[in-house]
Write a structure and sequence with these properties.
The complex is a heterodimer of chains A (about 325) and B (about 300). Chain A contains 13 helices and 2 strands. The longest helix of chain A has 27 residues. Chain A starts with 9 loop residues before the first helix and ends with a helix. Chain B is about 70% helix and about 0% strand. In chain B, helix 1 packs antiparallel against helix 10 and helix 3 packs across helix 8. By secondary structure, chain B is mostly helical. Chain B is built from 11 helices and 2 strands, in the order H-H-H-H-E-E-H-H-H-H-H-H-H. A two-stranded antiparallel ribbon of chain B has the order 1-2. In chain B, a hairpin with a 2-residue loop joins strand 1 and strand 2. The relative contact order of chain B is 0.19. The chains are: A mainly alpha (about 325), B mainly alpha (about 300). The interface between A and B is large, with 56 and 55 residues.
Chain lengths: ~325, ~300
């Protein structure tokens, strides 16, 4: 089922690093060639990419279902905003804080729930996704319904006057996403990644070979929460604020959908997932306006598309489109 | 003393609604090994049907009846047209464990969007079958209302019907047997697939009642039953997910506990309280209050 991946040799990591540099460079060039809206959507894709990576790590690799990634993103977003607003520290420290706080939060939650089998974790995280926005509403230091401002500031002047705010967001988001994916991909190919897959495959067998399954599951949950927290901070940056309304249950659902659509255990797939998640509202808008743009259509059509895609993909390509293709070709070569 | 009694009574009425949702979740979990997150959506759809009937006919109980029927039909339909297909396709690879959970999530989203597209997102208000103003004794008015007592009675009737069904009928025996061990039940001549669909139908009907009862207190929107799902789940976890009696006791305990927080601490901590209960149960007694031996399946 899973191909055996060798360790991280130095040359492999260097090659991967070069690849990521190349991708980053290409993205920056593209960012100069397209209009404002596309640049903004690029930043959103980068944000979704990080969030989806957190799901791939958790669900695809360690076999746990979390429905509360939106809530973890909220934790990261609020942590980043509180850091930036109260400590006046540089931007990068706000993002680091988002990772740290969300990872700690995840570790705490994981200790309670991740030791247990699927439904408990799924239900607990769902409860969190439903309740967390309401909690944020009720504490004044979290800014209530309107939320907190999150302002990373204007782009540095040396980039010139044409360098817009959105492009600055795009640069930061892309930079962070590339680093996050690079690190995640290395974690997944390391001993941890292999151990997680072993636990997912057969947790009893894994324990018999000396793996502390529950500890490693909590670790997976914590790392995944950290990534989600980072994505939450990036989301806060692109909309310049953290508010309960940005981290809804619908966001958690959309993330699960994106991850399943793109192949739940494929890290490169997250980029495709990000594209899909950004494209869905656009498609829904176009559809809604062609159907006579009622309020109902505008608010529920995106959800309809997301759910139909999720259901179809979980039934027909549960392990991602990649696996179906592989199976297809495998059958052909066998005959 | 008086306040304590009021809290207890209102807690019972709140908890009895949670009990229905938690029962619906447990019924499906026992037979299918899936926490059916779509239960909130199914209940919401049934409630919208019940709402339409109740508003047009001006009879709450007719609406309730229709909500039960709609919920049962939808529940059976979900199992027959959806879960069976799902289990036929998603049977290998990394997604095996996660596919059913994610599928019910997708279903929740689907039902929500369909309801939203049909009825819109406006707050709908259902005429309650009894007064929401508290009982008055001479000069004193207590918060416990006729509606609260009616809620408790309705739930009690449903629970008695379910208990009779499960303990006294062949169908109930088949349901219990298939939940306990599908293979052995099948060998004993029970058509387990059909029994499971019936289980889903019962769960759907029970969920419909929960939705109608909640809606006689609060507004109905495509999102208004999410919290009921969460509290139903917490109650089910307290009861250990396996036991129907446990689910009811868990729900009553949760209802009373949350009402204590509401009355003595404040609104802002109700959800945090519920969530803390969930974490505490998972940490201290993960198999629930009804657990006897150290047996965990699935």
């Amino acid at each position: 089922m899973a191909k055996v991946v060798g360790g991280n040799t130095g040359s492999k990591v260097r090659k991967k690093l070069a690849l990521f540099f190349l991708i980053g460079w290409i993205l920056l060039i593209i960012g100069d060639r397209v209009d404002e809206l596309r640049v903004y959507q690029g930043a959103q894709i980068a944000m979704y990419t990080i969030a989806l990576a957190s799901i791939v790590l958790l669900t695809g690799y360690s076999g746990q279902v979390s429905l509360g990634n939106g809530a973890m993103m909220a934790v990261g977003g609020y942590a980043a905003a509180l850091t930036l607003n109260n400590l006046q520290t540089p931007i990068w420290s706000a993002f680091m804080m988002a990772i740290l706080v969300a990872a700690l939060f995840g570790a705490f939650l994981g200790l309670a729930a991740a030791r247990l089998s699927g439904p408990y974790l799924a239900g607990t995280t769902l409860a969190l996704a439903v309740g967390l926005p309401a909690i944020a509403n009720q504490f004044s230091f979290l800014g209530g319904e309107p939320g907190l401002l999150f302002d990373v500031g204007f782009p540095p002047e040396r980039f010139g006057e044409d360098f817009t705010q959105y492009k600055w967001f795009f640069w930061i988001a892309t930079f962070i996403a590339l680093i996050a994916l690079f690190v995640t991909s290395n974690i997944l190919q390391s001993r941890f990644g292999r151990t997680w897959r072993a636990i997912r495959g057969n947790s009893l067998a894994a324990e018999l070979s000396g793996i502390n399954a529950s500890q490693l599951k909590v670790l997976a949950f914590s790392v995944s929460s950290g990534l989600a927290g980072l994505a939450g901070a990036v989301l806060a940056m692109t909309i310049s604020l953290v508010a309960p309304g940005a981290y809804t249950l619908a966001l958690s659902f959309a993330l699960v959908t994106g991850a399943v659509l793109a192949g739940i255990s494929s890290l490169p797939g997250v980029v495709l997932g990000g594209f899909i998640l950004v494209a869905i509202p656009e498609i829904a808008d176009a559809l809604a306006s062609s159907l006579g743009s009622e309020d109902k259509l505008n608010s529920y059509l995106p959800g309809l598309i997301v759910s139909v895609l999720l259901i179809l993909s979980v039934i027909y390509t549960p392990n991602g489109p990649g696996e179906n293709l592989r199976k297809h070709f495998h059958k052909k070569s066998a005959h | 003393m008086q306040k304590a009694l009021e809290t207890l009574l209102i807690g019972l009425s709140t908890g009895s609604i949670y009990a229905l949702m938690s029962l619906a979740l447990v019924l499906v979990w026992r037979s299918t090994r899936v926490i059916n997150f779509a239960q909130a959506g199914q209940a919401m759809f049934s409630t919208y049907i019940g709402f339409e009937i109740a508003t047009r006919s001006q009879i709450f109980w007719l609406g309730l009846l229709f909500a039960i029927v709609a919920g049962a039909l939808l529940g059976a339909g979900v199992d027959y047209f959806f879960m069976r297909v799902l289990f036929k396709h998603a049977n290998s690879g990394p997604a095996l464990v996660v596919a059913p959970v994610i599928a019910t999530l997708g279903l929740l989203g689907l039902i929500r969007s369909i309801v939203g597209l049909t009825w819109g997102g406006e707050f709908k208000s259902l005429t309650a079958p009894a007064s929401k103003n508290g009982f008055t004794f001479g000069e004193v008015t207590i918060p416990f209302s006729p509606l609260d007592s009616l809620t408790i009675i309705t739930v009690a009737v449903i629970l008695i019907i379910l208990a009779l069904l499960f303990q006294r009928t062949n169908l109930g025996l088949a349901l219990r047997a298939s939940a306990y061990s599908p293979e052995i039940a099948q060998l004993a001549g029970i058509r387990t697939a059909r029994t499971r669909t019936i289980g889903w139908a019962i769960a759907g009907g029970v969920g419909g009642v929960a939705g109608m009862l909640v809606t006689s207190y609060n507004f109905l929107t495509p999102y208004s039953l999410d919290l009921l799902l969460v509290f139903g789940f917490i109650a089910a976890v307290i009861g250990g997910l396996e036991s129907m009696v446990g689910a009811v006791i868990g729900a009553l305990v949760l209802g009373i506990g949350l009402t204590i927080i509401l009355n003595y601490v404040g609104t802002s901590l109700v959800f945090i309280g519920g969530f803390s209960v969930l974490l505490l149960v998972l940490l201290i007694k993960p198999d629930g209050i009804m657990a006897r031996g150290k047996v965990r399946r699935g």
